[in-house]
Structure formats: structure tokens, C-alpha cells
Design a protein that fits this description.
Blueprint (H helix, E strand, L loop, with lengths): L2 H9 L11 E2 L7 H25 L10 H21 L13 H17 L18 E3 L6 E4 L3 E2 L2 E5 H4 L1 H4 L4 E5 L2 E3 L16 E4 L4 E4 L14 H4 L9 H5 L3 H13 L26 E3 L4 E3 L6 E3 L4 H9 L12 H4 L3 H12 L24
């Protein structure tokens, strides 16, 4: 191919997001192409989500009969419905209220995400702990080593681990160590980050994002996500088709954890977590490992069901009546990572209205006011 044709082909493509603002571990070498693709997709979705949110901070356009005006109203309404469906609060038709904490909290995440993904410096630059030059991005947990409490500290071999790092070890029998990070979970057999069915785990306290082997197994890395699926989407498609098993959805979910945090990244600081799922009336949902079913009763041995995938995210955003009012609504949805992933998908796949049921629907024209 002639050089001029190569330039022509690539001139229309967006530049890759700089994944090297992270310390990308060698464990990611076998998966770097899939990881970079997911990172680029997350950057595209985050950028579109931010633009959408900024658009509806403006007052809803007044009706004026022109095609351009109608399209603006259609777009404003589409975004507003998506915001309510994913985050639980209604956008002010008169324009953004600067005293409204809901929109500010959502933009906190997407603004920080975009600053990092569209630039060349992470946010925070060295992570939350203040102990590292860069946050660490891994693709396996095998590099971690178990250090017993009386074994030499790898960073200070003249002292035992308990003498050198009492604040990291506590009363535990030892800690897992890798790249100046100590994780004390009391289990010398497993660091317990990656478990069956877990895509990835973000640990802000240790400046650590780990993509688990499950993310790269079988067809998962090649699953068509929202960025590649946008052009071929059709009425009746579901968001879960593009999100449930796509690495780009996993990526923006984990980045919501990271950029939604604050302070030192501890449990006492601002955090975007994985909230417990709720039912249609706001009852907390549990997963019974014996029956393999979801239930509202907190029986022995059940696990918290988390608000993953469209159905659980949309239920989490819903405002419910007492005594379940604290289980859902904006203050729960805004601090749930999956809510950001699915809003990002809705924003990017903007040829359709996905709100209310997670299915692609034609965007309706606004109603003509009685006195336009």
C-alpha cells in the first residue's frame, strides 16, 4: 500500500488513549491489544457521556418548529431520560442548578475520567495512597508473593515484615507483596482478588487495578461492545447485548471505581462501589448459592447480589417509599460503578433511546406545545 493511502486511512481515526499513564504490568503483555482496545472504547464512551451531561445542564430548548430545533429537543430529552434511568434524578428543564449535588457528583466521575483518558497524566497522578509514582494495572495475580510476618521485608531486608510494616500487617500472619504494595488478607494461600466469574477489581487504597484472567478467556475479549456495535444497532437490541460480556464495559466500570474515589482511597473516603441490588419495590436482594436464585430474605449462607447489568442498575436508580427508600434512588445509583458504565453505553449509542427498559427504541419527536 502506498504511504499516502496509509495516511488517508488513519487520518479519520481518533488517537489511542494513553494507557501508559498507568504502570502497565508485564502480566498484561499477552493481552495488551485487547486491553488497549477496551481502554480506547472507554475513553470514547466517557467523552460522549461528559458531552451529553454538559448539554442537559443547559435549559431544554424552546420549541420553534425548525428541524434543527426539534433535533436539539429530541437529543435533550434522550439524555435526560438516560440520566433519570441510570442515576435516579430528573434533569432541570430550566437549566442546571449549581446547588444540585446529584449532577455535580456524576460529573465529578466523568470529568476526572476524561481529564486522564484524554491527556497524558493520571488522576490522581501517582494514585491515592501517596506512596507510588503510578497506579498499577495488572492482568493476573500470580506475580504476588506471600511474606510471613517474621520474614524479611522485601523493601527493608534488615527488618522482619512485622517490624518494618506494622501498619500494613496489623495482627495478620503476613502479607502479599508486589511492587511496593502490601496486602494483608490473612490468607497465605490466595490473595483473593480474582475469583471465578470476576472480571476485574479496583483497589484504590493500594493504587491497584487488576483485570482477572476471566476477562481474557474464550470469546470475551472479542465480544462486540457499544463502540463497535453502534453502527449495527437496531430497534429491539438490548444494552446487555453490548455490555454484559464486553471488555469495554468492564473497563469503564473499573474506571468509574477509580475516578469516582477521593482522599486516600480508603473506605472512609469518597468511593464509587458496587451497590447491593434491589427489587422492584426497593427490597434488598440476596443470592442463594444453594438454589442459584435471587431472593429478598437474608437467610444463612446467602450473598449480597450486586447491581450489575441493566435491570439491576435501573432498579437501583428508582426512588422507593419507606421503609425501602434508603436502599435505592440517586444517592445509591450515583455511587454505583455499573451505573456509569451503562450510562456511557447509552450516551455513545445515541441513535436510539435506551431508557426505561434497556432496549433500543426510535427517538420520538417532542410534543408540539399548545402555544408554540
Amino acid at each position: 500500500m502506498r504511504p499516502s493511502l496509509i495516511v488517508g486511512l488513519f487520518a479519520g481515526l481518533g488517537s489511542a488513549a494513553n494507557i501508559n499513564i498507568w504502570d502497565v504490568d508485564s502480566s498484561c503483555d499477552p493481552h495488551i491489544a485487547a486491553l488497549q482496545k477496551a481502554y480506547d472504547d472507554a475513553a470514547d464512551m466517557a467523552s460522549k457521556a461528559q458531552r451529553d451531561l454538559r448539554f442537559v445542564q443547559q435549559a431544554r430548548p424552546k420549541y420553534s418548529r425548525t428541524r434543527a430545533n426539534i433535533n436539539e429537543i429530541r437529543e435533550w430529552d434522550r439524555i435526560a431520560r438516560a440520566v433519570t434511568n441510570m442515576f435516579g434524578f430528573e434533569v432541570n428543564k430550566a437549566g442546571h442548578d449549581p446547588n444540585d449535588p446529584d449532577m455535580a457528583d456524576v460529573l465529578y466521575v466523568f470529568d476526572r475520567m476524561n481529564t486522564a483518558l484524554q491527556g497524558n497524566q493520571n488522576v490522581p497522578q501517582g494514585g491515592y495512597s501517596g506512596q507510588h509514582q503510578q497506579a498499577l494495572l495488572m492482568c493476573d495475580t500470580t506475580p504476588w508473593d506471600w511474606i510471613g510476618r517474621n520474614d524479611p521485608d522485601p523493601l527493608n531486608p534488615g527488618l522482619s515484615l512485622v517490624a518494618s510494616k506494622p501498619q500494613d500487617l496489623g495482627t495478620g500472619p503476613g502479607a502479599w507483596y508486589y511492587k511496593e504494595r502490601y496486602i494483608s488478607n490473612g490468607n497465605p494461600n490466595s490473595i483473593s482478588i480474582c475469583r471465578p466469574g470476576v472480571f476485574a477489581v479496583t483497589m484504590t487504597r493500594w493504587d491497584l487495578l487488576t483485570f482477572c484472567p476471566f476477562s481474557f478467556q474464550g470469546n470475551l475479549p472479542g465480544t462486540i461492545g457499544p463502540v463497535d456495535g453502534r453502527a449495527g444497532a437496531a430497534v429491539g437490541n438490548t444494552l446487555d447485548q453490548y455490555g454484559a460480556f464486553s471488555l469495554s464495559r468492564v473497563m469503564i466500570h473499573e474506571l468509574a471505581h477509580w475516578y469516582g474515589a477521593g482522599g486516600r482511597g480508603t473506605d472512609n473516603d469518597r468511593k464509587v462501589t458496587d451497590k447491593q441490588a434491589v427489587g422492584k419495590n426497593g427490597d434488598l436482594i440476596w443470592y442463594n448459592t444453594q438454589t442459584k436464585k435471587y431472593q429478598t430474605a437474608k437467610d444463612d449462607g446467602v450473598l449480597k447480589a450486586t447491581a450489575y447489568a441493566y435491570s439491576w442498575v435501573s432498579k437501583l436508580a428508582k426512588i422507593n417509599q419507606p421503609p425501602n427508600d434508603a436502599n435505592s434512588g440517586p444517592r445509591q445509583a450515583i455511587f454505583n460503578a455499573e451505573s456509569y458504565a451503562y450510562f456511557g453505553m447509552m450516551a455513545y449509542m445515541d441513535s436510539f433511546d435506551w431508557a426505561d427498559d434497556g432496549k433500543a427504541k426510535d427517538i420520538q419527536n417532542p410534543l408540539v406545545p399548545s402555544n408554540p
